[in-house]
Structures are given as C-alpha cells and as structure tokens.
Amino acid sequence: MSNNTKIAVRTASSTYEVEIGSDLLPHIGARVDSLLNGGLSAGKQRVFVVTSPEIWKLHGERLASGFPFAPVLLSVPAGEQHKRLATVERLAEEMAQHGADRDSILLAFGGGVIGDMTGFLAAMYMRGIRYVQVPTTLLAQVDSSIGGKTGVNLAAGKNLAGAFHHPLAVYADTSILSSLPPAELRAGLQESVKAGIIRDRALFDFLDTESAAVLRGDRDALTRVVADSVRVKADVVSADERELGLRMILNLGHTLGHAIEAATQYKQLLHGEAIAWGMIAATGIAAHRNLITADEAAQIERVVRAYGPLRSFTTNATELVALTAKDKKNRSGARSFVLPLGIGDATVVRDVSEAELLEAAAAMMSEVNSLQVTA
C-alpha cells in the first residue's frame, strides 16, 4: 500500500485526491471513514453503494469487508441504456425508503455509467450529498471518475442532463483490471491514447512503444498508464473546472464518438471504441487543414488502431452529422470540435463546416462498411 500514487485534483469548488494502487478494495471502508471523521464506525453515517450485480458478484465481498457496517446496495443493470433519468429517480426513491439523509454518502462502484449516474444522484438527492468514486473499468479509472462531471443520457443525446458535482475521493484499484474482458481493457486504453495526444507526449510514446506489455495487462505498465492519464485529467480539470475553455480538449474524438453511440442506441460499440473512430476522424480533419504534420497524423492513427481492433457499426454519415448538432459542447448553434495540433497538443475550433464534417464522417463510414464486407 505504501507504493500507491496519490494525485490531487484542485478546483475552485473542491479539492480531493485520486489514489491509484493495487489491492485497494479492502481498505476503502477505512479511508472513507477517515474522510468522514469516524462517522461510519460511530454508526452516525450510512453508505449506499450503487453497483451492478456483475460487479458486486466479482468484487463486492472484498469492498464490503472494509466497512464497519454493511453498506446498503442499490443495484443497476449493466449497460448504457440504463443511464437515464428514470434509473436515477428509482435509486433516489430507494434511498429515501432506506432512510438516507443529508449525511449519508454514496459510493459509485462500477464503470463510467455507474459513476456518472451515482454522481448525478448525489448532486440531486436532498440538493446534494457526498459521494466517492471506486471505478472498476480502465476507462472510468483514467477518465470519467475524475472531474465532477455527472449525468445521464436523453433520447436526443449523451449526457444532456447532468451537473458538476465532485467526489470526496477517487480510489482506483488497478488489481481489478485483470478481471476485465480484453475488449473493455482496449476500449479504456483509447481514453489514455487520447490523453497522450492532447497533453502528454511521453504517455503517448509509452503507449506506442510498450503496447505489448500494456495490452497483455502487465500490472506495472497499466499502473503507469493509469497514473499518467489521471495526471492529465487532473491538470486540465484543475485549470478549467466548468469546461469553459481548456477542459474541452478532453473531448477529442467525442463529438463524432457520441454521435456514433446515439445512432447505434449505445448497443453496438463500447464507449472507447466509438471514441477511437472519432479520434481518427478528427485527426483526418486536422490533417486536411494542415494543422498537424502527415507523419504525426499517421502516428496517431497507428497507435489508435494498435489498441483496437476497430469494430464496425451500422449508421450513415448524414445521420452522424445531424447528431453532432445536438452535442452538449456546442455554443450558440456552432459546433465545438477538438482537433490535434501534434502529439501532446490540441485545440478547440468552432468553424468546422457541415460539409467538412460530412466528408470526414463519410470517409470513416467507408472504412466501417468495408469492415462489414470483409467480416
């Protein structure tokens, strides 16, 4: 436990730590109790754990063993399709039935869907209670559990209902990652690739040169990737808490990626897989604008593909472009689009035309359709 990495997230409204280490789960109860000044062990405060049946079956016993009293379980079925207001309302009703009050604490124990919903539930229950993130997927550990963005999806688009509400702490247990299916691990690594592209050349180069170790789940390699990715996210969030400027670079690949998810009803690709396609399209736009050298654009595409394979999906370019008009990053009717300027640097532009975006989406869909033919 002494070798654990702790990274501070400091914003105008909140300061907290992300702790990264192996075999953290049995110790989280004691850490939460300490954050609450002994409120759990004294029986004054209660913990409500939001998780899925699958996650609890795999890891619940180890987590629960560290709490002085058994937490109340709030169960959510796995899958992005459950990330809706109706689910949050049901969870809030269950909390009320179990006597949750302003001093109760929520614990998000799962991937990005669980984390986003739990944070939103914490933000709105009794106008705001405290919560802790215990992310169980690589994607959640390196990205979605950090920064206080919470929310749910609407039929019109992803994360269109939500709030900024920071956790008390984030505990990333890297030993959990060995239980992830290979596709989940690879999808999560795409968010780390993104972090390298936008802000950390050394992380990108490590993902490039050490891809074999990373992909086979080498614990030391994954721990470095998680820690470096978290530092990128913490640095950006600390500088721009409310996504008014710099923080938008974290959305590289997400404009078209979210459109792909919405067009496929969140059923055909994992989030990281959709973002991978979006990063390739964004890199293509940047290359056509001569914002990035051809060599660096090719290197980005190569590394994104190395953490694939990129899977096919069913939609069309016109539908994807129409869906980008509903992206939550848009301002005053103009699309906000993140483009790489080089490995380790990115910018936000608001002048990507519909024709330009349609061309990039069509090129992407041409490759997607060729995958379907050869499958």
From TrEMBL:
Binding site for Zn(2+): E191, H254, H271
Gene Ontology biological-process entries: amino acid biosynthetic process; aromatic amino acid family biosynthetic process; chorismate biosynthetic process
Required cofactor names: Zn(2+); NAD(+); Co(2+)
Annotated EC: 4.2.3.4
Keywords: Amino-acid biosynthesis, Aromatic amino acid biosynthesis, Cobalt, Cytoplasm, Lyase, Membrane, Metal-binding, NAD, Nucleotide-binding, Transmembrane, Transmembrane helix, Zinc
Domain 3-dehydroquinate synthase N-terminal: 75-186
Main location: cytoplasm
Cofactor note: Binds 1 divalent metal cation per subunit. Can use either Co(2+) or Zn(2+).
Enzyme class, first EC level, given as a word: lyase
Pfam families: DHQ_synthase (PF01761), DHQS_C (PF24621)
Residue ranges constituting the 3-dehydroquinate synthase C-terminal domain according to the UniProt record: 188-330
Function: Catalyzes the conversion of 3-deoxy-D-arabino-heptulosonate 7-phosphate (DAHP) to dehydroquinate (DHQ).
Identification of the protein by name: 3-dehydroquinate synthase
Name of the gene encoding the protein in the UniProt record: aroB
